[in-house]
């Protein structure tokens, strides 16, 4: 642990604000490639808070390759569930039959699924273990209260009165990033009037690795396969609902919640049971107008918060990490100032267009499918049917979902920087 009271000893190369998956991955990526860099992570959450997270996340194939290159995938893989198939339906909640309009086989290469479901605690724990093994200090329970970029470095003030100095500050502090605001970076932002309900559901029959996305009038309802656990067969639910209805469901009677859940989940996997406390959070689009400013780079939700309709939020964050690490490591090898704005602008140019494109895509998809307008429903169902009959176009979508399209950073290809 860093002796934060001894300010003279607190000269770092990189300070990461945020000890979530993206922040930890940024620290590990940089330290593994450049062991000489002095790196620390600071997080506002109390020590051990991450262990209470019972959610799971979809990790795309490219992110799995990156985690493997970082030496953490082997720790996660035994409890990860491969997504071997995905189907898409478009219907009303009360429809007795939900016709399948689109199906995807779940491989980007033989034996390589396009995504896995991973428990958040397993992912965070594996990244923390690697960070500690590499000698990265993790300072928990204290927030960044201010920072001052000047000259060849940035002075970071912590809420407990301590002070750290670094050449580069990485903001990985979430969609409501305080550091982004401190840097004066504006955002494009709007709310969808929807909330995302998340919970784990236990069911009688096995899911066989199939993920399903049901487009319903109030928003998409996704079922994502999990590794069987003590509750038996399990799936993770990501359920978009109108905000006022979502809050009533989460706060209301358990029997009412399970009834509404069953209407959407169906009985194809037998009887179902809610295995943990459902939670809801508001959904919106947030895009930072810049991903970098003097001495600071934004990654993950601090740079972009998008609708979960395509399951790409966390994977976009890992793309940020891979790109930033490659830019910073190459600059350091050339003897350049890793926190200089011209270096950070290379990262911004690499990531910003792709991120805006994904944000616009998820926004359009949500607006197109989260309604019950008859003519629009007919048009979108015809579109889904056409995609189903075009193998090359389906392959393109799989490559997009796997994170292996476009100008892919080395880590996402499974290559060392």
UniProtKB/TrEMBL annotation:
Residues 12-329 form the FAD-binding domain. InterPro entries: FAD-bd, FAD/NAD-bd_sf, Ubi_Hdrlase_CS, UbiH/COQ6, UbiH/COQ6_monooxygenase. Pfam families: FAD_binding_3 (PF01494). GO terms for biological process: ubiquinone biosynthetic process. Its cofactor is FAD. Pathway: Cofactor biosynthesis; ubiquinone biosynthesis. GO terms for cellular component: ubiquinone biosynthesis complex. It comes from the Bacteria. GO terms for molecular function: FAD binding; monooxygenase activity; oxidoreductase activity, acting on paired donors, with incorporation or reduction of molecular oxygen. Keywords: FAD, Flavoprotein, Monooxygenase, Oxidoreductase, Ubiquinone. Belongs to the UbiH/COQ6 family. This is Ubiquinone biosynthesis hydroxylase.
């Amino acid at each position: 642990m860093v002796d934060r009271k001894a300010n003279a000893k607190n000269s770092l190369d990189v300070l990461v604000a945020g000890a979530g998956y993206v922040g930890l991955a940024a620290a590990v990526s940089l330290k593994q490639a450049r062991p000489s860099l002095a790196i620390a992570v600071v997080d506002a959450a109390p020590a051990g808070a991450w262990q209470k997270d019972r959610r799971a996340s979809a990790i795309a194939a490219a992110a799995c390759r990156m985690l493997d290159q970082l030496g953490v995938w082997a720790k996660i893989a035994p409890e990860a569930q491969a997504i071997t198939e995905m189907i898409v339906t478009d219907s009303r909640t009360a429809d007795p039959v939900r016709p399948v309009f689109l199906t995807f086989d779940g491989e980007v290469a033989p034996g390589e699924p396009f995504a896995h479901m991973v428990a958040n605690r397993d992912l965070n724990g594996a990244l923390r273990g690697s960070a500690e093994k590499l000698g990265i200090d993790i300072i928990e329970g204290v927030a960044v209260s201010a920072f001052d970029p000047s000259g060849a470095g940035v002075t970071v003030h912590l809420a407990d009165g301590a002070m750290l100095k670094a050449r580069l500050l990485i903001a990985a502090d979430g969609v409501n990033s305080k550091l982004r605001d401190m840097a004066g970076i504006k955002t494009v932002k709007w709310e969808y009037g929807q909330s995302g309900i998340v919970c784990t559901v236990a069911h009688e029959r096995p899911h066989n690795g199939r993920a399903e996305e049901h487009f319903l009038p109030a928003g998409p309802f996704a079922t994502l396969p999990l590794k069987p656990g003590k509750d038996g067969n399990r799936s993770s639910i990501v359920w978009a609902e109108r905000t006022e209805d979502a809050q009533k469901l989460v706060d209301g009677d358990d029997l009412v919640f399970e009834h509404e859940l069953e209407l959407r989940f169906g009985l194809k996997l037998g009887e179902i049971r809610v295995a943990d406390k459902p939670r809801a959070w508001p959904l919106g689009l947030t895009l930072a107008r810049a991903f970098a400013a003097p001495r600071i780079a934004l990654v993950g939700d601090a740079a972009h918060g998008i609708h979960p309709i395509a399951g790409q939020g966390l994977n976009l964050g890992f793309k940020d990490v891979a790109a930033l690490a490659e830019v910073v490591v190459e600059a350091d090898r050339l003897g350049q100032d890793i926190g200089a704005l011209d270096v950070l602008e290379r990262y911004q140019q690499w990531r910003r267009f792709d991120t805006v494109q994904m944000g616009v895509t998820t926004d359009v998809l949500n607006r197109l499918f989260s309604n019950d307008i008859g003519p629009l429903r007919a048009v979108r169902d015809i579109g889904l049917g056409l995609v189903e009959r075009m193998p090359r176009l389906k392959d393109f979508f799989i490559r997009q979902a796997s994170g292996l399209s476009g100008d892919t950073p080395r880590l996402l290809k499974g290559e060392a920087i």
